[in-house]
Amino acid sequence: MNGGDLTERFVESIKWIREIFLPMDDIANPVMGIREWDDSVCIEFCGRLLASCDGPYTKRLVMKSALVHAATDVVVKGGKPLFALDCVIGGRPDVEEMIDSLNIQALSLDIPILGGNTLFEDVEPRASLTVVGELLLDAPIRDSTAVSGDLIALLGEPVWGERVERLEIAKRMFEAWFKIIEEVEINSSKDVTKGGLSSCIAEMEEKSGKKFKLIGNIPYPLGRNLDNFLVTLSEKEFEKLKEVCGENKCRLEKIGFVE
Questions:
Q1: 40 pLDDT above the threshold of 90
Q2: For 47, 89, 195, 259, which has the most beta carbons within 10 A of its beta carbon?
Q3: What are the contacts of 58-61 at 24+ separation with CB within 8 A?
């Protein structure tokens, strides 16, 4: 492959992505971002950062809500996403479709994609995402700090359905959560992703050294990804949580207690 071919493959062939993502700079106002199309991203920041990398997501999920799933890891710890980075691979038609979908998700969620990597290869199309956020609290809300006597609750609806529906569910949950962490003391939290509630609870039990006791009829399959939030908190704080959720039209289910 000669120099011209290499330039076409690795430089010229992805310039269209810059044009799609260029409006992202208006959201984050980076020191160095999409406009510069450089080797890394630079933003001004003073504080504590949360970062999470997720994927590689299948094209099916990228076309619906991959950025939501990547962002929940930051949000549930008490962070507000500042920006995301993407790594996308596949044939050009698949990559174009995934980039278009990620652009829609980023603009809807107000999480600008400021950089990443794209490779055209004849392989199964996939995308990985890294989300970086600002910690809004003095300390992150860990998944290992449940307290005996805590109530266990599910916050938000499952992020299911088509893309538009999923984005609306996620935005409603995120907006409610940012108000919740201002007013309610959450002892532990985790997003319900890989392995569903069963795996999520097992991990929180192991890390905290506590037993989680489920009660009543849980309205969701225990093994399916929900992408809403599992939280534990005192009974007193749960009453505050109910009030904030009611004010913000955020679904809340009490599903058990910590022994």
A1: no
A2: 89
A3: 58/124, 58/125, 58/126, 59/90, 59/94, 59/97, 59/98, 59/124, 59/125, 59/126, 59/127
223 — phi, psi (to 5°)? -105, 5
Q: Classify residue 146: in a domain, yes or no.
A: no
Do 178 and 110 lie in a common domain? no
Residue 256 CA from chain centroid, whole number? 25
Cβ neighbors of 60 (< 8 A, separation 6 or more) are none
Region 173-192: mean pLDDT is: 98
Residue 258 pLDDT = 98
Q: What is the largest CA-CA distance in the chain?
A: 69
Please write the tens of the pLDDT for every residue from 212-229. Answer: 999 988 889 999 999 999
Burial class (CB in 10 A: 0-12, 13-18, 19+), 174: buried
Beta bridge partners of 117: 87
Q: Which domain holds residue 236?
A: 151-258
